[in-house]
Design brief:
Two copies of one chain form a homodimer. Chain A is α/β, with parallel strands linked by helices. Chain A is about 45% helix and about 20% strand. Strand 7 (about 155-160) of chain A pairs antiparallel with strand 7 of chain B, so a sheet runs across the interface. The structure holds 3-isopropylmalic acid (2 copies). One 3-isopropylmalic acid sits at the interface of chains A and B. Chains A, B: Its cofactor is Mg(2+); Mn(2+). Chains A, B: It comes from Zobellia uliginosa. Chains A, B: It is an enzyme of class 1 (oxidoreductase).
Chain lengths: ~350, ~350
């Protein structure tokens, strides 16, 4: 297969972990006789230094024509701590999601038995956790109209959803549940929000056309509780942009392995693959970042194109690195292996 | 002291747990020679059956003239599962908060050493957790304009905040921190939301007038992670209405004792005291609900009026019930004691 892959390293540890994914994809290319063309492009705070814009036009154009995008991470402390910054790196990511129509973020949260002890939760609670969050990614309060009054004393964000935005991701979630344990949980705040009531109404209707899937609804506050008390109860979680942001980060941490989880953001014509974790600027350049989340996101990329055997080869090599304890410090508490070394080990074992 | 206390039992287990608080307050009245006048009023789904309204005018009027309000819980399954209901019980609670100007919900989350093993988190993580959440309660997306398009296919909620709404609760939080471990953490999503940036700017300015308090900011997704990895890092958490809803429920569950935590909702002229937990309709009338959260909220009521000795008497009696294992099933996994018995035990030990 021939694939053109856009590489957006982004900020902080993004470029370092992405480089390890590229090693792995090159190993796949060779072993399985594919042709991958990699094109790097500036994105995030790093792009702002040159162009003043986190998503330069050329970067967007590249992403539009590429078959897929591998993305590292975005965000920098300078902007986080400056509420008055007019432009900020995250806007680049939000615009990219919107322009490419990446309306569904798919975030699998599955226990790695090797790291059961790393979970902050007790073993009997978290063992065998295997769920996937479908987070709506191009609507809601992230993209609603924002206002700041002229005197700067009042600010607002609009959370708006349409039936069609809700139903397209709902169908993805129900279809995914068919191939899994056949359960969908909608998370909303329908006792307070009008937009949540539209979610509940729309998804309840859709559920009727999937009679073999069991369907339930939870308020977000209760979902955050259930995620800690009994994460095994969940199979597919469906939720909006803001709740999905919170719940997926919460979900990732119950595994005790924020550095290990990949995700996919998909639309009708494009797809982007990225780690769960953020840019972690404090670790930048130190060769300590865990490359596994990014490497597994490149496996998700291969899967997206039906290259299951290839994806499995990456996953197997990652598991080998776990067994041999060739992992970064975050996973074991201490380790002599750096980002680079772990990336080499995994790619050489493909 | 003479106090007129409005009693709003509300829905589900609300009235049952509230009745135990009243027993305790009556014991205090007698022992310490106070005069408490209790007046019950309908509220929630139960009030809708009669008047069609979750907050009848007479109930509101009573709350306005009372010195304080003791509240049970609100919410019923019929409404939760009906996204088309025009009126719902929660609206009564939201309106009550707004009409009384209860702009700050204060939710202390402190480990009970006796129940350390109940936490879903590992002991070394959660031990000695002692934080308090200041949640803004009368603004944000809970109260912003809601719309539903005429054809019912688009819905929206507005999240709006003004500087003055933010600063009045921020000052409460900083003042509380002065008497505690001198740290305030603002939780927001300033990398995405305009309203969050107003929070960050306003609170950062206010922080400068409290030079002895250390101040930091966290994004909500990261805060949800930190709450599970290291809750001890927090002293006072300050946040908006929606994030506070999620984070406080998440915080309560790390203690493994959702049935034990009280809260206060305060304004300039009124104050309401209530358990963290919800109406738990499944347990209604079964005499299994844990009354301790409600009983401890009556202790917060006493404290609010400077009756520290009295509040301590309640807390001491609750601790005695822990030591003697006179607790409900939720706490011990199984127990022969019901709601009523536990309430009797605690009130008799005051
Ligand atoms: C960087 C930030 C804008 C982003 C989000 O909130 O969507 C991130 O937290 C994520 O979850 O992908
Ligand atoms: C009942 C509901 C409206 C309420 C809220 O979301 O504020 C509750 O969850 C709470 O936290 O007090």
């Amino acid at each position: 297969m021939q694939l053109k892959i856009a590489l957006l390293g982004g900020d902080g540890i993004g470029p370092e972990v992405l480089a390890q994914s590229v090693k792995c994809l090159k190993a796949i290319e060779e072993t399985f006789n594919h042709r991958f063309e990699f094109v790097e492009a500036p994105f995030g705070a790093i792009a702002m230094t040159g162009s003043g814009r986190p998503l330069p036009d050329e970067t967007l154009a590249l992403c539009q024509e590429a078959d897929a995008i591998l993305f590292g991470a975005i965000g920098a402390l300078d902007y986080d701590n400056n509420p008055e910054a007019k432009v900020r790196p995250e806007q680049g990511l939000l615009r990219l999601r919107k322009e490419l129509g990446l309306f569904a973020s798919i975030r699998p949260i599955k226990m790695f038995p090797a790291f059961l002890e790393n979970s902050p939760l007790k073993r009997n609670i978290v063992d065998h956790t295997d769920l996937v969050i479908f987070r709506e990614l191009t609507g809601g309060i992230y993209f609603g109209k924002k206002t700041l009054s002229e005197d700067g004393t009042t600010a607002s964000d609009l959370c708006s959803y349409s039936e069609s935005e809700i139903s397209r991701i709902a169908h993805l979630a129900f279809k995914a549940a068919k191939k899994r344990r056949k359960k969908v949980t909608l998370v909303d705040k329908a006792n307070v929000l009008e937009s949540s009531r539209l979610w509940r109404k729309t998804v309840t209707n859709i559920a009727q056309s999937y009679p073999d899937i069991s369907f339930e609804c939870l308020f977000i506050d209760n979902a955050a509780v259930q995620m800690m008390l009994n994460p095994r109860q969940f199979d597919v979680i469906l939720t909006d942009n803001m709740f999905g942001d919170i719940l997926s980060d919460q979900g990732s941490v119950i595994l005790g392995s924020v550095g290990l989880l990949p995700s996919a953001s998909v639309g009708l014509e494009n797809a982007m693959f990225e780690p769960f974790h953020g840019s972690y600027p404090q670790a930048k350049g130190k060769n300590i970042a865990n490359p596994v989340a990014s490497i597994l996101s490149s496996a998700m990329l291969l899967q997206h194109f039906g290259l299951d055997e290839e994806a499995n080869a990456i996953v197997a090599a990652v598991h080998k690195s776990f067994v041999k304890k060739v992992v970064t410090t975050d996973v074991l508490g201490s380790s002599k292996y750096g980002t680079d070394y772990v990336g080499d080990f995994i790619s050489e074992n493909i």
